[in-house]
Amino acid sequence: MNKDLYSILGVDEKASQEELKKSYRKLAKKYHPDANPGDKKAEERFKEISEAYDILSSKEKREQYDQMRRGGGDFSWGEAGGKGGSPFGEGGLADILRSMFGGGGGGFGQRRTSRPTVVVSVPFKTAALGGTVRANLEVPSTCPVCMGAGGSGKESCSQCGGSGRVQRGQMVMPCPACGGSGSTFKDVCSRCHGTGEVISSEAVNLNIPAGSDDGSVLRLATPSRKTVMVKLRIKPDSFFRRDGRNIHCTVKISVPQAVLGAKLKIRTLDGKIVLKIHPGTQPETILRIPGKGVPYRGTKGDQLVHVEVTVPKSLSEEEKVLWEKLSGKKA
Question: Model's pTM, two decimal places?
Answer without folding.
Answer: 0.53
